[in-house]
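Still learning. Any example?
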Amino acid sequence: MIKSVLGVRSPLLFIGCWLGGVSTLSAQTALPSVVVTANKIEQIQEAVPASLSVLHEEDLRKGAVDDLEQLARLTPGFTFQPFGQSGTNLPVVRGLTSNPTAFSSSMLMLVDGVPTLMGQGFDHNLLGVERVEILRGPQSSLYGRNAEAGVLNIHTRQPGAAPYARIEAGAGSRDLRLLSVDASNALLADTLYVGVAGQWREQDGYIDNTYRGGQADDRERQSARMVLRWTPGLATEVNLRYSRQDYRDGGSLWGPASAERREVRSGTSSWNRSSGRSLSLDVLHEFDSGLKLRSITARNDFYDRVQQDTDFMPADLFHLKRDYHMNTLSQEFRLEGQWRDNQWLLGAYADRDEHDLAFRQKLPVGLVQTDVELGGNSSALFGQWLMPLSEHWTLTLGARAERNKVHIDPAIGSRQSDRWHRFSPKATLQYQWQPDAYLYASYAEGFRAGGFNAFSSVANYPGYDPEKVKAYEVGAKGWLDGKRLRYSAVLYRMDVHDMQVQQIVQPGVVYITNAASARSTGLELEVDYLLAGNWRLVTAVGLNRTRFKGFREAGTSYRGNRNPYAPDLTGHLGLRYDVSAGWYVQSAISAVGKTYLDSANRYSRGGYGLIDLNAGYEFANYGIAAYVKNAADKRYDAVGYLNGTARVYSPPRELGLRVSYEL
């Protein structure tokens, strides 16, 4: 199995030294090469001229990484807003993010080619994942709208001829109980294969409801995945995939802004009954000429069903209730080939969104009900050409012509629509100055789709235009010390125009506009070093400065202010030790700088560092692992969420034990 080293793989020094004294080590002599498909073609990781992090299944399993927030801690320049609700995650990449009511995202997530274009449904428990590729920087030339600042590409395990099964049970803090299964086998030899995976996870909350009793935020999650793989010939492969995830939670991780203890006094019930579904057909055929044709047809549904008390008091003064159904149908065709020493890719893409939004808000004066249908479609042609200019120089050109149309149809009011056309180019020049060392410089443009303010009936649901980014990037990556050290260093600047921000248009009227512009500059460093004696050091640092160049609200200028939810620092440092007898131990420190929660920079979450510890023993087909997350029990609440009224509580220390059997 290929072992990636970008993960929380770090040992406790004193345990590692003790184990080293009683075991004979079979030390690795070099880090393995990793093949990725970040540019929709196969390349070794170091040859991809972009800021790219790669993690494999073993990194995630041994690091006890089982959600996207933990995944983000391992990569520079990547975090999430402190939203506090299962099933919805709003990514922040290189200082760019989005509002949850925009129903779009600054980062695109793909799971086996199925796109998630918004924060709702941007989630995965990483069960059965083979590889994760995290691209940072605009990727709209290949991936289209909402790949404005990056792409999170998740590849699940493909079933093969050899039978595979892994069963895992776990227990931990706050009565955590977990059971997961991942299995695959051949139904017809060399022709038809099946894979299934499922997980049930339940855990008590940590926010006390002192009025109703018990915890306000208990968590339960059920997920399942199935794939049928058909290989009618050596040149053809067909995958039919289905996945679902269901949330049966208590309330969001919210409380009053003034409450320093993790508690509420809510008399109104809060719950989350959201669920996600996806169905896709993935067909790949290679012609005798060497051309490869791929088609991915997908349907992605997310049901956002939530009720949340927002006054946190016994009297029902304020609460909200959502009943959303977001649906996206998508189709992509792409043709890949080679001409002389050139590699090329041509593709066509189309999708259609249909979102039914029912929102109710309880106010002291009564209920406010909104029923709106949002929809739209997009179509695009895209291409990419990799052209060797000489033995050491390579030029990559990419472009995408895309048309977007959106509409809003409220229950009360008139239907509105708008459309845009975008051309997104990308050019990269790469120089291989040594056999294992690359330098590159790139220019790229990206965008995030425009839309309508679905909950601003008083202003007749105003629209807003796409957010546009122009990015310049230079980087160096490669190997050192006989391929024992892999490194990547990137400098970038991004200019953001028509920035989508939430703005107070007049007293009591707030909605998304294109009122701002900003600049994001930064540095990203990653080092993976295989030290002597099976020690492995992994570090990642992201420095980012995202500031408004222009933004006025109610007569106040926010020029020079930080973009909300964008920290200036992200970092990770891990050390890992493996013992040939099957033992492993690791420790890791991750850090995130201070984060502001609003454009005025009045409310914030302080900077913090987290310590995670892991140890395990694998023997024969069995395994046992123990972990401690947030070992120092660091508190890092986001104080002032919801315009200063709420606090998003951070999770306390968690200890756990897992046992597994793998065939």
In short: Residues 486 and 505 are 50 Å apart (CA to CA). Confidence is low (pLDDT under 50) at residues 1-26.
